[in-house]
Design a protein that fits this description.
Blueprint lengths: L2 H10 L11 H8 L10 H4 L11 E2 H11 L10 H7 L6 H10 L9 H18 L2 E2 L7
Parallel strand pairs: 1-2
Helix pairs in contact: 1-2, 6-7
Organism: Methylobacterium jeotgali
Protein name: DUF3597 domain-containing protein
InterPro entries: DUF3597
């Protein structure tokens, strides 16, 4: 499973239903630039606690719920490192550089501040493309 697929799966399918295991395939194709299949993850989204009446997953609610249960103060809204920590994923520079490669980052991966900002925006964008309801203040 791709790193992005893992992120999308943990947020859009936080309870890991059987159908959710198949969800990362559309995420992987979305990261390569294609957006086909982006609506398929919503079929299982309504089974999670973060679902909305339209069947999409409320990304903000899922992440705020995780943050409330986490002993650390993590700012997932602006920090890719904190978002990854909140999801209990590797947030090391090496892992973020791998995610940057997966998402076709063309900037300098040694400029971690710029890369981190770009990664956060891209992850939020991919969550929305894959059926997540993203807060307006996080959209470009």
């Amino acid at each position: 499973m791709s790193f992005l697929g893992t992120i999308v799966s943990k947020i859009l399918h936080p309870f890991g239903s059987g159908e959710a295991q198949a969800a990362p395939a559309p995420s992987g194709s979305a990261s390569s630039g294609a957006s086909g299949g982006a609506s398929s993850p919503t079929s299982t989204a309504s089974t999670s606690g973060g679902g909305t009446s339209s069947g999409t997953v409320d990304v903000e609610q899922v992440l705020n719920d995780l943050a409330a249960k986490n002993p650390q103060q993590l700012n997932w809204r602006t920090s890719i490192v904190d978002l990854l920590k909140l999801l209990d994923l590797d947030s090391s520079l090496h892992a973020r550089q791998g995610l940057a490669d997966e998402l076709h980052y063309t900037g300098d991966k040694n400029d971690s501040a710029s890369m981190n900002i770009w990664l956060h925006k891209q992850v939020i964008k991919k969550l929305e493309e894959n059926g997540g309801k993203v807060p307006a203040d996080l959209k470009d």
